[in-house]
């Protein structure tokens, strides 16, 4: 199968030579030289001359970097410690450190990217399942190319924009300023030390899709659901849960621009996740994207335009589960403040060691999940190459000749869930050559992932105050049930790990909280996963705890049938339908559930 690939900037020898020339000729970076370099590189990809001068185009950046008051009171950026050596009095200390240490590191990542990255990076296409893995160093190189706006903008609307940060650099205000600081902080951490391990990008597909009669006939019990009124998914949950990304169909949503809601914030505090924008096609109706082991580097406060960078984050967990400092040294479990080399970054430990499991316990969880190893059909020489592979000099993960492919079975029986199957390598997205540095990970059954697993599932967007009734149609109910199921029905981080989720597809997307909470509960129960539901203080979720208590002995099928019954009265053209059932006015979904379970209405 011919697989499309990412257009790499260094494949154009002439254009790449000019990019490198622009970067290398800078002997000592200043804000103006950065603006001029970005301007020249952007002009290479522009089909028309840029009208604005570098000073005008990057006026916001120049202002940000020149005004000391912009950084006063911002204790999040503490690179270099105190005192700073050789500080230029014309710049805030943190800007001096960035220009003299962090920015040269970004430039070095760009210059070395042809040797760090493979000659081909396949796109994670739709209509089948696939997996790509990138080493941490490859992630840093990809983001460095984005910092200097080297990626060519796509003209295919099936893909999101590649990770290009020119908007943040041109308009560093509000949420863009916060996201720029988080990116700068990411590069500073990578300058000090780049961890081992890989970012895994899985594309999951439900095939065949389940129908509503199958859902309504499912006799699996509903799993426990805990309502959490405080905290958030990223802030309150660790690697022991599956984190739900309330995604746009284009993964990452508006993160490269002004967007700063749940998905965009998740991608900002974990910049490695931005690599998925480079390779992931727009999600289909039965697809989800699983992002494994993306490293969180930043704390934040606020939401939307009130988003603020709040400092460094460290989970203190190495790739092999060992407690690590930022520069790769082993540290004791109770150490909460460390020094990163000569940088002196202050760490605040938000990791609860009591929630840790050992590698042995994790492996046992995976074994008990009864998964089929994906390499069972590989030839013996491929298996040998997997066993003998090791970390390469350029930071790539161990090389594998066959990528992992997995598919979520869509069949729903009355008393069992679907299973994960692993087609033969002949169905793979790509077969990298032995010299390819792009890593394709082994199956979850023979690898231990200690990183956080985040799953991107996109809800239907109805918009503020529009189309709200359409979501109750059978077509839309089935769509959202299957979408949530493909996001949950897989063995990451292990087969029955809890789901950490919340008001998915609500807010700007116009979904109803009461409906979306129940849909996700049903889908998690099909996958036999408990649910931690974060309400984010939304009053529309009030009563969810009472509903959970009322339904604790019911099955998935019974709850889906109640949902279908409610959709009939919700979509009724007149009020006669619900008045016949004893309601004076249209009941909410939760009100209907109470009466249905208490048998005070004839359904």
Explain what this protein looks like in three dimensions.
- With 603 residues, the chain is of the alpha/beta class.
- The protein is 34% helix and 11% strand.
- Strands 1, 2, 3, 4, 5, 9, 10, 11, 12 and 13 form a 10-stranded mixed β-sheet that branches. It has a 3-stranded mixed β-sheet with strand order 6-7-8.
- Strand 6 and strand 7 (308-314) form a beta hairpin.
- The longest helix is centred in the first third of the chain and has 19 residues, at 93-111.
SSE layout and pairing:
Elements (H helix, E strand, L loop, with lengths): L12 H12 L6 H15 L8 H4 L1 H8 L26 H19 L1 H4 L13 E6 H12 L18 H5 L3 H19 L5 E10 L4 H5 L8 E4 L4 H4 L5 E6 L14 H8 L6 H4 L7 E6 L5 E4 L6 E7 L33 E2 L9 H10 L11 H9 L18 E3 L10 E2 L31 E6 L15 H15 L10 E4 L10 H14 L4 E4 L9 H7 L5 H15 L5 H5 L8 H9 L6
Parallel strand pairs: 2-9, 3-13, 4-11, 4-12, 7-8, 12-13
Antiparallel strand pairs: 1-2, 2-5, 5-11, 6-7, 9-10
């Amino acid at each position: 199968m011919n697989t499309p690939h990412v257009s790499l900037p260094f494949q154009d020898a002439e254009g790449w030579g000019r990019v490198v020339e622009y970067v290398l000729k800078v002997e000592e970076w200043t804000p103006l030289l950065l603006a001029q370099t970005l301007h020249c590189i952007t002009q290479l990809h522009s089909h028309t001359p840029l009208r604005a001068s570098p000073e005008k185009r990057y006026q916001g950046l120049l202002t940000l970097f020149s005004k000391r008051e912009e950084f006063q009171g911002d204790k999040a950026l503490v690179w270099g410690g105190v005192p700073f050596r050789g500080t230029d009095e014309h710049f805030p200390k943190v800007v001096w450190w960035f220009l003299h240490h962090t920015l040269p590191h970004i430039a070095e990542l760009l210059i070395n990217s042809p040797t760090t990255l493979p000659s081909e990076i396949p796109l994670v296409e739709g209509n089948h399942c696939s997996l790509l893995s990138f080493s941490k160093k490859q992630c840093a190189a990809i983001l460095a190319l984005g910092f200097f706006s080297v990626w060519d903008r796509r003209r295919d609307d099936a893909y999101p924009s590649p990770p290009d940060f020119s908007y943040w650099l041109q308009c560093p205000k509000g949420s863009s300023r916060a996201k720029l600081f988080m990116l700068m902080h990411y590069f500073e951490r990578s300058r000090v030390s780049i961890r081992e391990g890989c970012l895994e990008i899985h594309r999951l597909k439900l095939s065949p899709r389940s129908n509503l009669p199958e859902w309504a006939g499912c006799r699996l019990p509903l799993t426990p659901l805990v309502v959490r009124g405080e905290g958030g998914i990223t802030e309150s949950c660790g690697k022991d849960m599956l984190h739900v990304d309330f995604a746009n169909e284009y993964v990452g949503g508006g993160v490269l621009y002004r967007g700063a809601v749940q998905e965009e914030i998740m991608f900002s505090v974990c910049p490695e996740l931005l690599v998925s924008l480079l390779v992931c096609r727009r999600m289909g109706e039965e697809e989800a994207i699983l992002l494994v082991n993306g490293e969180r580097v930043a704390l934040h406060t606020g939401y939307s335009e009130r988003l603020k960078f709040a400092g460094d984050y460290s989970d203190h967990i190495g790739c092999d589960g060992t407690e690590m400092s930022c520069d790769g040294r082993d540290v004791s479990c109770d150490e909460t403040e460390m020094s990163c080399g000569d940088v002196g970054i202050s760490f605040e430990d938000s990791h609860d060691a009591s929630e840790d499991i050992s590698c042995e316990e994790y492996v046992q969880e995976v074994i008990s999940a009864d998964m089929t190893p994906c390499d069972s059909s590989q030839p013996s020489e491929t298996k040998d190459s997997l066993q003998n592979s090791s970390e390469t000099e350029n930071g790539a993960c161990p090389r594998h000749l066959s990528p992992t492919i997995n598919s979520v079975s869509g069949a729903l029986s009355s008393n069992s869930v679907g299973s994960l199957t692993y087609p033969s390598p002949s169905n793979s997205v790509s077969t990298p050559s032995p010299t390819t540095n792009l890593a394709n990970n082994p199956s979850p059954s023979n690898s231990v992932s200690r990183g956080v697993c985040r799953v991107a599932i996109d809800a239907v967007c109805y918009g503020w105050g529009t189309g709200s009734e359409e979501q109750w149609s059978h077509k839309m109910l089935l769509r959202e049930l299957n979408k949530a199921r493909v996001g949950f029905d897989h063995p990451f981080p292990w087969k029955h790990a809890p789901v950490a989720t919340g008001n998915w597809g609500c807010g700007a997307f116009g979904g109803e909280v009461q409906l979306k909470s129940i849909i996700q509960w049903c889908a998690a129960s099909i996958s036999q996963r408990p649910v931690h539901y974060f309400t984010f203080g939304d009053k529309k979720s009030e009563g969810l705890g009472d509903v959970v208590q009322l339904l604790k002995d019911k099955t998935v099928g019974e709850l889906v049938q109640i949902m279908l019954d409610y959709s009939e009265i919700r979509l009724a053209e007149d009020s006669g339908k619900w008045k016949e059932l004893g309601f004076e006015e249209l009941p909410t979904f939760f009100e209907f559930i109470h009466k249905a379970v208490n048998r005070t209405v004839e359904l």
